[in-house]
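Hello again, I could really use a second opinion on something today. I've been staring at a protein lately and its backbone has me curious. You're getting the sequence in one-letter code plus the fold written as tokens. I'd be grateful if you could look everything over and explain what you see. No rush at all, and the record is pasted right below:
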Amino acid sequence: MTKIQLSLLLLFMLFALSFAKNVTISGYVQDLKSGERISSAYIYEPSLNIGTITNNYGFFSLSFQTENDSIVIAASFIGYKPFSKKLSIENKIWLLIDLVNEILQGETVEVIGERVGKIEEKSQMSQISLPVKQIETMPAFLGETDVLKTIQLLPGIQSGSEGSSGLYVRGGSPDQNLILLDGSPVYNANHLFGFFSVFNTDAIKDVKIMKGAIPAHFGGRLSSVLEINMKEGNNKKFTGRITIGAVASKFVLEGPIIKDKTSFILSARRTYVDILARPFMKGNNFGYYFYDINGKINHAFSMKDKLFLSVYTGSDKLSSIEEYKYGHQSEKNEFGLGWGNITSTLRWNHLFFAKLFANTNITYSNFVFYNKIINTLKKDNKIKSSNNINYNSGIRDFSGSMDFDFVPNPLHYVKFGGKVIYHSFNPGVAQFNKNEENIDEINQSIAPVKVHKNSEASLYIEDDFRVTSSLKVNFGIHSSLFISENKKFYAVDPRISMRYLLWGLAFKLSYNRMTQYIHLLTNSGVGLPTDLWVPSTKKIIPERGQQAAFGIAKTVNYHNNLFELSVECYYKTMNNIIEYKEGSDFVGLNSNWQDKVEIGGGRSYGFELFVQKKTGNTTGWLGYTVSWTDRQFDGLNFGRSFPYRYNRPHDFSLAIIHSFPKSKIDISLNWVYGTGNYITIGMAKYRSISSQADLFHENNEGLERTYYGSRNSFRMGPYHRLDLSAAIKWGKTNNHRLSIGLYNVYSRKNPFFYYFGTRTDRNGEEKTVLKQVSLFPILPAINYSYKF
């Protein structure tokens, strides 16, 4: 090309651009029937082949240049009819898009498959969104649908043990997961000792889990982020739902206070096992129940300003009373155990202008655990002595944050903001009260533990940048400060994710560094609330983690059915993690918790396969994980590394949901298989004389002792289980629903724990054998729900 030709080309381009119009289209996407804002909906201009997705609050902004006099704006979201509208060109266009949730099976699926935000389009990886309707249809333990149980079926995510709601993400521990309910952290997500979670599915709008490639606007945990957002409430009409189940019942009510402006939602759930069992319990001496309540109210001042207030409260309570009488004396032992969460969020959404959206949050979170033991002796109905022990622990947070979404043009999506948190840790204080006859009452604290008050602050910025048509990069920086005991800890954590399109595939790469300033001291694998939250101190430094991942992803439209396929491999390191020293736990009240822990590290690496069918009468997914994870502490296992208890080299899950639209029946199943957990058990018995006193035991042969070998050197048997469920709907609007299910269909005796016992052989000799304890055989479930 000559200089003259090049000059003419540049002049032509400048001439064409002079006629191009700058257009900015912004607005919200919402459900037509309820007015609920829809996050992650795809907005695009077909002829220009540019698009964006809505944020968590349904907002979008799309800027571009065009020479046309009109444009077409389209929107789509799985489960909704596609939207399309022709618009006249203006510099700024405001649009409120209503999507209709009445898509017929097989209708316009091909269009959806082409335009729903493909997995290839996203620079992020290791992230999965779960539709709430899919969660509600999955087989449920004792009939209670559960968000965390469904998430455990995804690759890279494991449960701790039978029935547990704990999350072990890519080799991490439960405290390394940031669980957010409407932006407020939940520090203990378990009911019934881990068999249920605290999240009532009826009140949930959307669920997203991030296992890696965590964006810069999140911080404070090493392994994952679980975002759960509550429904906003129907602002069109009053609706409700009542569900009666085998172990619990619940209801949800929602509707407008001022139509199209102010709405509310209220839901509650309670178990009634204690009520049903009471007639069979002598003296009503044992009881257990849990409850939770969700409430939310929101008001739209205008299209630019919206205010939300959401509240959650829930609690578990267990009590036991034993009484003994002998002659003129009596003794009474009372035991109480309880734990619970309170969270609340005050949120303000404000649109400064078409390209800048702001979200301001003020949140409160409080987790408490208590344990009480009361012993009372009476003689001739008069108190002779009484001894009370009360143990309390917990964590309380106040926080404020501002987050901004800035969309300067289709090539950039910028997020920036900051957060301040005020923590108050109560690692455990026991109060001992003693009152004896003729002796004044004695009140004293056993090893009073200092309540730690700490401040945490963070700033971040990230940009989702389309470099070329093939290369897209999300780069961000998360900086944080933690103040503890007049010591300041700083961290600057880079995050980067990138996607490159080649041969119709998306090749993805990510790296993130994370810092965690709070720790969980745990001595139980079944989700008991005796776990203690503690801060970083001069002696216990913050946890640090790094994770790198590589993956390939593809969206496939096969015979008008939409599939997502992804494979990922990852490598993660964790430093400065803590664990109890040998023989230590929260019960030892005569020493500071900082003296009971060891500091060490761990690593995890593996491969994940995920295939998800997202449309059609049959939906579901298949997940497979191959992974390894270990730990190393100088003061444990003689300093040698050992397998993490929940190291499962192989983990497989299959979830299938099928709908019969004409017969109004939905059926679902899930099958899981996992390599057994690691535990430490005795390897051999021997006798040892450690002191002169031992010479007088066991015929002067010394005391019998157990050799345990290496830590976590024994692998439990594999875990596998099949669950089935069927739901029948009837009524003019399908407002009646009866669900029946079977948990552990073939009654697999999965190992829960092992112990040594004896067995008599054919010769009448007793032999020591290893015995297995299993929890649940086949369990039926049934519940009925009514919508109005």
Q: What stands out?
A: The domain at 18-115 is CATH 2.60.40.1120 (Immunoglobulin-like). Confidence is low (pLDDT under 50) at residues 11-19, 104-114, 524-528. Residues 3-19 form the longest helix (17 residues). The longest strand covers residues 382-409.
